[in-house]
Model the fold of this input.
Amino acid sequence: MFVATTNQLATPRQSNQSIASANGLSVHGVWSNGITAGGTITLLSNDPAQDLTPETVTETHAGSVLIVGGQATAEGLYAAASIGVNVVVAASMAARTIAYAQKLPMAVVLTNGFGKQTMAENVWMLFLLNTKRTAQIVEIQTTESGLQKATLALNVSMAVEGESIAAWQPLEVGQQVRILDALQPNMVGLIVALSRTRTKLASGLREYTATVRLLSGEEIEVPLANLQIFEQYGLSNTSAATI
Done:
C-alpha cells in the first residue's frame, strides 16, 4: 500500500521527503570477488549486450562503477583494473575467470552468473536511469557453497554535480519515475496517464494519481506524491521494475 501525502505535484526533493530514507534502490549480485568499493555509475556502452574487452575500456572509466551489459572477459577486467576502475558490474563471466577475478584490486560483481549472458532488462534500465549517480557495495554474503554475493546500493537521492533541479516541477506523461513505496522500494516505470480528478485510494484517501507502466507491462495507479522524477536519457517507451 502506498503512503500518500497531500502533495498534488511531485518534485525530486518533495518525493524524497515523502518516504523513509531506507528505501534506496539496490541490486543483488549472484557472485562477487569479495571486495567492497563504490563510485560513479558509468555505462560501458549504450548497447546492453556489449562485452568488457580491452578495446572498450578508456581512462574516462577510472574511479567508476562500470556497468557491463554483457560478459566480462579476463582481458577486459585487467584493462579496467589497470586504469583504476573501482567496480565492474557485469552480467556474466566465464567460470574459468573466477580465480583471476579474485586476485584483482577492484571489485567485480555479476548480476546473472557464469557463461555468456546478457544483463536482465530491468537491471540494465535501473543502472541506465541512474547514470552519473553513485553506487556502493554495502554487503558481501558468503553462500553455503563458499561463493560470495554482493549487494550494490544506488544513491538516487544525490543531485548530479552541476545539475540544476527546479524547486517545483510538475509530473508529465512520458517521464521516467521511481515509485516510492515502503513495501516495494525498487520499482521504476513510465508515466502513461495523469488523473484529472482525485482518485480514491485503498486507504480511503482521495489523491491525484498517475498511471505508471512497469517493465512487465503492468499498469498501476500511484499517488503523485509517491513518485520521484528520474533524469531523462532519451527514453520514451521503456521502464523498469523491482530488482
Remarks:
- The longest helix spans residues 74-82.
- The mean pLDDT is 78.
